[in-house]
Structure formats: structure tokens, C-alpha cells
Please model this.
Amino acid sequence: MPQQTPSGKNQNISINRKVRYNYQILETYEAGLVLTGTEIKSIRSGNANLSDSYAHANNGELWLRNLHISRYTAAAESNHTPTRTRKLLLHRSEILYITRQINAKGLTVVPLRLYLRNGLAKIELGLARGKKRHDKRQLIIERDRRREADRAIKNRRV
Model:
């Protein structure tokens, strides 16, 4: 079931947890999605998956690929294709900046989370740089050290 924030306005549908392990997020953006009726109904019931999805620029527009939105079970023949390419809605200046960053610096745009805000589907995008294998190993080592330190503090006797 989708999670709701304390304010009651944003409702998380899907969070891409692996992306923060595989990429270094430099900037984040909020974008709208162009969806069909059965897609938004399926999203509202919590049937979306962000893994393996990414955004790319084409003719001055940003498009989201491989976002899997399951078919809406109550729809008959007029259902949608689960992994179709969907248009992202951003300001023109943001699209131009992101496109320049993708082309010049070799960065990529990955979705971080999909959520509902006031009934509208929004996606949080991250402008990211891929991490190398040694960076990931260092992250694991640091996480283990923090766990051990927290455990030692917790078990410390006064």
C-alpha cells in the first residue's frame, strides 16, 4: 500500500532505493508525467516500478523509459502498454540545462521516486553520475563501521 507523509499531501507510490547506491546524485528535479486514464488509476492503486528506468532527451523534450506501470485490472480492451515511453513535464529552462549536462558531462537522469501530490502523479528525477566499483566498496565499509560504532555505544555500560 502506498505510504503517506504526515502532511497528507504527498503519497509515495514507488521509491528507487538502488539508485543511490549505484549513482552519485548531483541535483534533483520534480517533473510531471503525461499519463493515460488507466495508467493513473493503476498508479493510485500502487502498481508502479521504477527499477531500470531512466530519462533521455529527444528534440528538446525529456522522455522516461522503462517505467513499469502494471495494467489496470478493471479496464477491458482500452488498457495501456506497461513499459511505454512517457513524456516528462518540466520547465523549458530545466530541460535545456539537463540536456546540456547529459551531452557535455556524460551524466544521466534517473528517477528517484514516484508519488502523488494533490491527486497528480509526480516523479523526482536526479541528475546523476555513475559510481565506480571502489566507491561502492568504500560505502559498504563506512556503513559497517557506523553500525559497529552504534552497536558499541548502545551496549556500553555506565
